[in-house]
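does this look right to u?? copper (II) ion version
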Amino acid sequence: MPQISRRTLLKSAAVLGAYGAGLAVMPRISQALAASDPLEIEALTGDVVLDGKQATRGVMRYALNGQTSGDPSPPILRARRGEAFKARLTNRLDEPTTIHWHGIRLPNDQDGVPFVTQPYVCTGDRFDYAFSPPDAGTFWYHPHCNTLTQMGRGLAGVLVVEDDRDPVFDGEVVLNLRDFRLGGDSQFIEQFKPRDAAKTGTFGTLRTANWQTEPRYDVPAGGLVRVRILAADVTRIYNLKLAGAEAQIIAIDGHPVPERMVLDMAVISPGQRLDLAVRVADSEGAEMVLEDVRPSTAKVVARLRAVGSSLQRNLGDLGPLAENAGVDADLSNATEIPLLLSATAESAARDSICGSLGYSFWAINKVPYPGDA
Ligand SMILES: [Cu+2]
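got this back:
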């Protein structure tokens, strides 16, 4: 494989942009912008204390509407089903980035995939995103450039699409779950190791929810609380249990489940979302603990604490979530494509490109997937 420098990639991106997205996108966006101002989202790099000891350098984060102080974790973005959502990304990283709106059905030129749907957003540049989400639920956003590294350093946030027809909860807790891979000096260490990538992935060293260790959130006693969970870690598969309260699974990956299930243990893998309806304990001060129970000893993910006098609510009183529209697909003439996922057996590394390790470990239909992902 010929070595492709970043500079060459950038040039190709610029050319692609002229054909692929630039010309087609801009007029529609400026029209949309006339209605109201977009959210301002900056991608930037900085020092953040993650492990409670000292600042980690080179953390990548999103700042909303110029707020660069306060909670450094990715802002929870909110949209409304069927209404225009607009966000202007400004790239203050020292490498290209984009935003991909994971799980949202949108016009292809808003999907945030460089070389495919839009040009790179290079350092100092901006890109205007605009779409009207057709589905309500818990979604998320992240870059699609040097993706595992940028996500590993922090860039992954929750996008909530609301719907007035959804039942009214007494509270809401949004949990963005992820690990950071830090050394004893609180600094990032080698993010991916071939030895691990060939097995279950390279795990982080610091577990967090909303970039905090075992955070605790106050919720109304005896109330019904919607807990929106995103597994934003690039490696970890969570096995979630909630101790101390009754809970039901009401949506998975942004979409309401046909029938609610009592939460026993829910398995969610990287990129997945899980929405729970939690009936908070009645007594003030009672704690409910969300735990990751496998593979070893249970780890606390986050805690909920009941506050106030009991609202005496009942899970059975909760109406259904508004349904998302199905996708009408005519499968009568569909082509069947078998999909065989397997390991590869390459003995030597190839040239590393775009932050990859240069190895391929996994294959689709016996064709090695380039890179370590
Ligand atoms: Cu994604």
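The first helix runs from residue 6 to 33. idk if thats expected tbh
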